[in-house]
Fold this protein.
Amino acid sequence: MSYFVQVVVDGLSNGAIYAALALAIVLVHRATGLVNFAQGGMAVAATFVAFALTRAGVPVLLALLAAVVFGFVLGALLERGVMRHFERGDPDTAVVATIALLVLLTGASAFFFGYEPQPFPSLFPNRTFEVLGVFVSFRSIGTILVLIAVMVGLQLLFRSTKLGLAMRAVADNPESSALSALPVSRLLMIGWGLAAGLGAVAGVLVAPQLFISPGMLDFVLVYALAAAILGGLDSPVGAVVAAAFIGVAENLAGAYLDVVGDDLKIAVPFVAVMVILVVRPQGLFGRKTTVRV
Amino acid sequence: MATATRPAPAATTTPPRSVVTRAAAAVAGLAVAVVLVVAPLVSSPYINFQLASIMVFAVALLGLNVIMGYTGQVSLGQSAFLGLGAYITAYGVLNDWPIALSLLLSAVVPAAVGMLVALAAARLRGLALAMITLALPIIGVPLARRFDGFTGGSQGQVVSWLRAPESLGLANDQWRYYVVAVIALVAFLLVRNLVRGRIGRSFAIVKENEAVALSMGVSPYRTKVLAFTIASALGGLSGFMYLAVVQYTSPETLVFATSINLVAAMVIGGSASIVGTALGALYYVLVPVLAGQVNSSRTALISGAVLLAVLFVLPAGLVSLPRRLARRRSARRGTRTAPHDTADDAATPTSTDGSAPAVPAPAATTTDQHP
């Protein structure tokens, strides 16, 4: 039983990482209708900033905050400088532009820090503690708590601030928002910035586990994409629930099904996602949209 | 394609072209054909390897273009079919199957797998479909590692086959080049005819508007299943060619990154265009090689920068370059002397300056006319 709880908690902590990146994807998709492949690249770049700072002796928490700020600025600049050019064009071209950014940012990270994976200090003590006979690691609990804090923060931002209201308006209908004198382009910049900042959180949280390297988040990005799509792409809650489901399902299958084992465990959540999508095409929490001809 | 600016499906609105352009296209086509036939005889094995690789990925891109460019359904799983085709071929080589059987099965089995996936997934749209196709390489890689009896596990399969017949006096690399070139040629001709005919029109109308397709008696579901099946078959076929050229396959062959790069190459070349497909393959193979030669540790940086630069300048892909140049020229001439010449430009005034938003002219309408 205690092993089971441990496996579930570890799964939830992995899920929390996927969820952070999935939330970032949902943020950008809500605002621009794009799936942003560069999310992983931006997060890695920001994490490398934190890495450089910690190497210079800055405490991890401060480095995390600096990475979030850097991520915000980077995201906003890329939106303004690159993505705006593709906004009103063909969506396929815009998505490929985000792929180009991913390649470019990965290359830039490698340019400064090399391809070798390097150790990254953890935000949390590398110890476990016992609750009701179950050992759980500080890292898992800490990761989950940070994600919950981020989610509450985002929810407050979107629900109870003027900025959040304006961002929702822009996501809902850019033309009407512009007519209501909302600064649409600036709000899009902020949306990209927020998403990249969120990615920075995910990067710093996962780096101690994966070791930091330019390709560190490639796999996490795929999981996050799956979570975002499974959650219905427009629903932050859906993305988080789907991410938790993917993390737990993967861990449980790896731990308990001998046929699956460690190598095939990644297949389990993806097969599940395929089945769920075929049964429920709009995702778990997505709304059915009907298009008028 | 910027569907919003496109007046009608590609296949139905081919503007008449002048005799001069036609002749120029024919001459260019002939020149390319001669170069492609002669090149392997005078080039080093390394060059031949790169040329043959272009053929391989051209066929993979051709499949991707059928489902994504022509039919408008996102597919992030093309690498899985490439890998499946390569594995089937490797299995055939190791078990002494006749080559014709390997060739057949390398296309038929992926087609069957693709059809099964499409039967379940074709009623999905957009990103849900992207998710299903994305899962194929993600699941495929660990599967390939696991079933090492069939795949050779993480080590992969090294094969040695398709040696040049003694009587021809060709080196192995030359012979393999010609084999894949012939397969690529046949595949391109078949697809070219397909997309210009009735089925191609049904692809285009499904891409444009499924409700309209339905009202015309074209079933979007069946059309998508068909397009996906063809795409998978071509993916598998490119796997056969891949094994012919590389003589090795491993789980790396089907990684997700390959699918993503193929999508990028398709858009770079020009979606829904036969010539664009070839240009995309050229891009796919050559840019990493050239970037690596400029600076081997900066390959990703350079590739990303080139990709972004091309997208900025030619959002409709490399295939739109000639038309863009022509338009720019006529615009310049128009401002100086002949105002009656600029009627076409007046409609899209933004296209004359470099920072224009993506308003690509309909790439498919004229460019798929080349042989």
Notes: The first strand of chain B starts at residue 157 and ends at 158. Confidence is low (pLDDT under 50) at residues 1-13, 337-371 of chain B. Chain B touches chain A through 53 residues (CB under 8 Å).
